């Protein structure tokens, strides 16, 4: 009798080791290709773009590269340039990575930095900071 894994159907399936390895390899290659001066597109020529993560679909046919322009400057222009250059970048990636089929690459703006800044701002608010530094309540009064 074959074994079956019980999958948690309430949330997204976790990525396999293969997906993680391919995603990390693609992240390194894309970071190398997106260095300033490597591409001819005017929006990308002088832009400093950080590739924070690459998520690969389970069938390894599609990849989403999460990117962030340096300091978030000209994000709209950089994203438009990446969209225009996606097919070219896929071809360059195909020459640098040994995969049977190179995934289609879609670029998305990474909002993790914005979320981290928002959380830091919330934690720095006086009422939250007061609660963080307050002594713990005594449990003797309740029992």
Characterization of the model:
The chain is α+β, with helices and mostly antiparallel strands. Helix content is 45%, strand content 15%. The protein has five helices and three strands; from the N terminus they run H-H-E-E-H-E-H-H. A three-stranded mixed sheet has the order 1-2-3. Strand 1 (49-56) and strand 2 form a beta hairpin.
Write the layout of secondary structure elements.
Layout: H1 17-33, H2 42-45, E1 49-56, E2 62-69, H3 75-96, E3 104-109, H4 112-124, H5 126-133
Parallel strand pairs: 2-3
Antiparallel strand pairs: 1-2
Would you report the number of β strands? Answer: 3
Q: Tell me, briefly, the overall form.
A: flat
Radius of gyration: 21 Å
Q: Which residues form runs of ≥5 with pLDDT under 50? A: 4-11
Strand content: 15-25%
Portion in helices: 40-55%
Order of strands, main sheet, comes to 1-2-3
- Largest sheet features: 3 strands, mixed
**SSE string:** HHEEHEHH
Give the termini distance in whole angstroms.
54 Å
Give a brief outline of the structure.
Helix content is 45%, strand content 15%. The protein has 143 residues and is an alpha+beta fold. It has a three-stranded mixed sheet with strand order 1-2-3.
Which features would summarize this protein structure in a list?
about 140 residues, alpha+beta, three-stranded mixed β-sheet, 5 helices, 3 strands, about 15% strand
């Amino acid at each position: 009798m074959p074994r079956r894994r019980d999958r948690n159907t309430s949330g997204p399936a976790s990525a396999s080791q293969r997906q993680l390895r391919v995603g990390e390899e693609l992240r390194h290659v894309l970071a190398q290709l997106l260095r300033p001066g490597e591409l001819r597109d005017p929006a990308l020529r002088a832009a400093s773009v950080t590739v924070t993560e690459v998520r690969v679909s389970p069938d390894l046919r599609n990849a989403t590269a999460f990117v962030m322009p340096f300091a978030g400057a000209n994000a709209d222009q950089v994203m438009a340039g990446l969209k225009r250059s996606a097919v070219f970048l896929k071809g360059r990636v195909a020459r640098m990575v040994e995969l049977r089929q190179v995934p289609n690459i879609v670029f998305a703006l990474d909002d993790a930095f914005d979320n981290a800044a928002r959380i830091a701002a919330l934690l720095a608010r006086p009422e939250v900071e007061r609660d963080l530094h307050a002594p713990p309540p005594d449990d003797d009064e309740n029992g």
